[in-house]
Amino acid sequence: MDFSYGVFVMSGVHNLTVPETDEGSRLDRWFKKQFPHVPHGRVEKLLRTGQIRVDAKRAKGNFRLEAGQTIRVPPLPDPSDMSETPPVNEDDKKFIRSLVIYEDNDLIALNKPTGIAVQGGSKTTRHIDGMLPALGEGCRLVHRLDRDTSGVLLIAKSVNSAKWAGRAFQNRRAQKIYWGITNGVPQPKSGEIKGYMAKGRLDNRFGNVHEGKELMVPVRHGADGGKHAKTLYDVKAQAGQKAAWVIMMPLTGRTHQLRLHMQLLGAPIAGDPKYMTDRPLPGGIETSLHLHARSLTIPRDGKPDLSFQAPLPEHMESAFKMLGFNPENDDVDWDALS
User: Fold this and answer.
1) Using CA of residue 31, residue 35, residue 40, residue 42, what is the dihedral sign?
2) Is 258 in a helix, a strand, or coil?
């Protein structure tokens, strides 16, 4: 049975059961659908403090729900007590519209610039999610990019389009291609890199993972919080041993996956403040992160695939010219690498 709990006051703690129709939904998005009057920042805090739980256990916002699971919902405010979402100002309306590279009745594709967050947080008030009302009522994120990663960001215009597009990401049917400039040259120059990664920092004495802030580390199979990550990659050009243009296809969608994998290959993404090397950047390259979500292909049942491509940001275009990389030479035989 398809149902929604709607917008209502929950003065005490309630337990709600996930219906079959919500199987596979992200916890944060499911919660937002049931209680749309609760701001995203409030939902994040409820998750962070363990007030929202799944089967009596703490869970993160990206947790994928299963039918029959029980969601603990804490007391929530009356919608009338919540301040309305502030309107998008004229500058941000123009800004978000300037990012559109594709639009149809179901989806919008943006070319997200580096340096702007996709979603808000305790110290982030200006973000893509907050500007979406300027693109139309009901617009919502399908996936996310890091603040400093540029490129294709997909927006759904309705709940239904968000479900089928989101399912492509969940089932790993969406093909994501990233371009990066690395500080140094990855070794080997092409192939597959895979392993387990977790959030935290590595204790070299015991190999234990401790909680950290948005920093991923390689871990052994079975380590607490460890998730499998797999990336195909190919070095398309290099400037001596100083820098390389690498094209990457992540086959999983872990936080900072590509950034960690390039560091593990001995050549972190140029300008990365977290996954670093002692090697200095080649002269003339900006300190901004040189990672770009170049293209995205989404399959559609009974229809041709949808493909989107985002032009390079200025700092990467400048680096390509300075290093002598030809962006037209971008063919990769992915089947040969897998």
Assistant:
1) negative
2) helix
> Which of these, 114, 172, 184, 104, lies nearest to 136 by C-alpha position?
104
- Told to judge if 278 belongs to the known catalytic residues of this protein, a careful annotator would answer no
Q: Which of 22, 28, 146, 148 is the catalytic position?
A: 146
Per-residue pLDDT of the chain (338 residues; tens, 9 = 90+): 233 333 344 457 888 888 776 777 889 888 887 887 787 778 888 888 899 999 999 998 889 888 788 999 888 876 655 555 678 999 999 999 999 999 999 999 999 999 999 987 767 788 999 999 999 988 989 999 999 999 999 999 988 888 889 888 888 889 999 999 999 999 999 999 999 999 876 444 444 444 445 689 999 999 888 999 999 999 999 999 999 999 999 999 898 999 999 999 999 999 999 998 888 988 889 999 999 999 999 998 888 999 999 999 999 999 999 999 999 999 999 999 87
Contacts 24+ apart (CB under 8 A), 15-18: 15/70, 15/71, 15/72, 15/73, 16/70, 16/71, 16/73, 17/68, 17/69, 17/70, 17/71, 18/65, 18/66, 18/67, 18/68, 18/69, 18/70, 18/71
User: How, if at all, do strands 100-103 and 140-141 pair?
Assistant: unpaired
Query: From CA 279, how far away is CA 275, in angstroms rounded?
Result: 12
Q: How far apart are CA 198 and CA 250, in angstroms?
A: 16
Q: What angle do CA 35, 14, 68 make, to 5 degrees?
A: 85
> How many residues are listed for the chain in this entry?
338
d(C-alpha 183, C-alpha 181), whole Å? 7
Q: Are strands 100-103 and 53-54 parallel, antiparallel or unpaired?
A: unpaired
CA distance 238 to 267: 12
